[in-house]
Amino acid sequence: MWFTIILLQLLPHFTLSVHCPGGCVCDIRGFVKCTGDITAVPPLDPTTTFLLLLNDTQIQLLQERSFQPFHLLLRLRITHSSLDTIHPEAFYDAPQLRSIKLSSNALSVFPPKVFGELSNLEQLQLDDNQIVSISSGLFEGLLNLTELDISNNHISQLDADVFQSLTKLIFLYLAGNRLRNLPGNVFHNLSQLESLVLTSNQLETLESGLFDHLNNLLVLMLQKNQICEIPPHIFWHMPALHTLSMSGNKLQYIPPRSFYYLPNLTKLTLYKNPLISLPDQLVGHMPRLQELYLYETNLVTVPWNLFANMTGLKWLHLHLNDNLTSLPKDLFCCLPKLNKLSIKHNNLLELHPDIFSSLPSLQILLLNENKLRTLPEQIFRHTPRLQTLDLKNNHLRYLTGDVFIHAGALKVLSLSGNRWNCNCSIMGIAEWIQENPTIVNDLEKGVVCREPYKLLDRPLQSLTYEDLQCGPTTYMTSTSVATKVTSSPPTLTITRKDTGTTGTAPVSTSILPFTSTSAVTSLFSPTAEESYIIKKIGYNNQPGFYNTIVLDSGPDIVHNNHYNGWVYLWTVPSTGLFSGFMVALYIVLLVVGVVIIAASLCALYRLHKVMWTLGEVAIEGHYQRITTKSYKF
Predict the structure, then answer these.
(1) How much is the pTM?
(2) Where is the LRRCT domain (predicted)?
(3) Which CATH superfamily is 8-102 part of?
């Protein structure tokens, strides 16, 4: 039974193998593949061959009417062979052919109108040959052709009417040739064209009006040419265009309004051009643009409104611009959907605190390989979805401890290769690293001190206040003062209550590094006996704290009172009987408080036991009454 079934299944294959020439594989579905020492089209069953693939053969010549017997043949492939000559009538009597692929052979010339009888042909691939020129009439008669690939040949020029009869052409591949210029009307009959690839030629200029009739074009690839200028408005007549690549050319300037009237554009590449500047009016309304590549240029800066019309942008690559030292404050003003921003490998020296304030969807931010010395404390306050941040190989000397406090979604942070200066100001970021060691992904690669010398190569996460010879606070003097933070840190305003004298001093996020020459020192005229400590206990993002600076006497006693946005402090001298008495009183009150709490807990425990006993007695009495009533009944 099973043997019969298997035999019936193998019978068609056995029958085909009888008629299949040596070096070929014949499939029941009409697929024939031949390879090896074949020098001509092999004799095959014309009633079963629909697809013929001749790969890596010794065929050099297609003879006259080579495919006449194959009335059902639809697709022909002769690739990676020695084919260099085609008879003018090689495809005669084969009008049913739909696809011909002659890629990777040695073809250099074609007889005129060799494809003229193939009125049903839809696909013609002649790529990777040695074609030098194409005659005007080569494609005449191909009224139904939709795809033409003549890329990677040696074609240096095209006749103006070479594509004139290809009115149904959708895909045209001309990449990898030696074209220096194109006739202004060479594409005018290709109104159905959707993809035009001119990559890797030697084009130097583009004729005005070259693309005027390509109203349905979706993809235009012009990268890797020698284009040094483009005419104004050359792209204006392609409203359907969604991909435009101009990268790898020699553009130094782009005319104003060059990219207007492209509402459907989704990808624009301008990288690897020696652009010196960009006009203020360059890009029109592009709500669907998602990818923009603008790197490896000579730009010093960019117009503040460059991205204003790109509200749908998701990926922005603005890196590898060696001369780019600054970015306008409002450059990223209108990119609510931006997911990835790469501004790495530039020469940025600083960033405005509000530069990322309009990027609520930002998840990946690459700032590595710049010359940033520090970052504003509030720079990430409007990037709640930021997950990956790369800051390695900058000139960072310190960061405040609160710089990442608004980046609650941060998962990957790179900090290595910076010039960390390990003084008291570094403890803010050092403590943050200690609390978030899993977020910093390059601790082992060198997030270490570069100065002072005694702490060279010391990991930041291992630093302590003792290592830096400064406490968790910094000292100043006073007797009775009132303090308040100004509306725009990092300037602290301190007013002496008894005289009304006001002074200012710089403020760090975690520590206030006042010195003997600071405004505070000159304001209060300190003595050796009057030394107190300043701490910042207020944070803008935590409503449970006041936005204040508090004077604290350290081990001594400080009384403070918050009133109308100010903190008033009265300090007790650090020496003398009164100070000792107050400390002793504080200890006594603390002990009394502990005793009262312990006594209260003991009383609660005993009360709980009494209540539990009374509850058991009540339950037992209730049970006895119920039992007595049941018995009487």
Answers:
(1) 0.73
(2) 418-471
(3) Ribonuclease Inhibitor (3.80.10.10)
Assess whether the region 8-102 and the region 352-470 belong to the same CATH fold: yes
Identify the burial level of 625 via C-beta atoms within 10 angstroms of its C-beta, where 0-12 means exposed, 13-18 middle and 19 or more buried: exposed
Q: Which residues contact 367 (CB under 8 A, 6 or more apart)?
A: 343, 344, 348, 351, 389, 390, 391, 394
Q: Show the tokens assigned to 387.
A: 């997950």
Q: Provide the CA 71 distance to its chain's centre, in angstroms.
A: 54
Q: Please, which residues have CB within 8 angstroms of residue 127's CB and are 6 or more apart in sequence? A: 103, 104, 149, 150, 151, 152, 153, 173
- The residue type at 37: D
Q: Regarding beta strands 123-125 and 558-563, do their DSSP bridges make them parallel or antiparallel, or are they unpaired?
A: unpaired
Which structure tokens are listed for 205?
Answer: 């200029």
Element (H, E) at 54: strand 51-55
CA-angle at 429, arms to 371 and 553, nearest 5°: 130
Q: What is the spatial distance between Cα 400 and Cα 423, in angstroms, rounded to a whole number?
A: 13
Residue with structure tokens 């107190």?
532
Q: Which of 3.90.850.10, 3.80.10.10, 3.10.120.10, 3.30.2350.10 would CATH assign to domain 352-470?
A: 3.80.10.10
C-alpha separations of 340 from 42, 311, 313, 314, 367 in Å:
56, 14, 9, 6, 11
Exposed e or buried b per residue across 328-358, where buried means at least 16 C-beta atoms within 10 angstroms of its C-beta:
eebbbbebeebbbbbbbbbebebbeebbbbb
| Structure token pair of residue 191 | 């109104």
Which among 204, 114, 110, 100 is positioned nearest to 145, based on CA atoms?
A: 100
**Mean pLDDT, residues 595-603:** 90
Report the alpha-carbon distance of residue 372 to residue 222 in Å, rounded: 35
At 490, is the secondary structure helix, strand, or coil?
coil
- Per domain, the residue ranges of the chain are 8-102, 352-470, 474-571, 576-604
Evaluate whether 137 touches 112 at the Cβ level (below 8 Å). yes
Q: Which amino acid is at 284?
A: G
- Identify whether the C-beta of residue 560 lies closer than 8 Å to the C-beta of residue 567: yes
Amino acid at 257: R
Residue 476 has pLDDT above 70, yes or no: no
**Mean pLDDT of all residues belonging to the chain:** 83
Half-sphere exposure of 286 (CA within 13 A, CB side): 29
- Scan for tokens 């010359």, then name that residue: 371
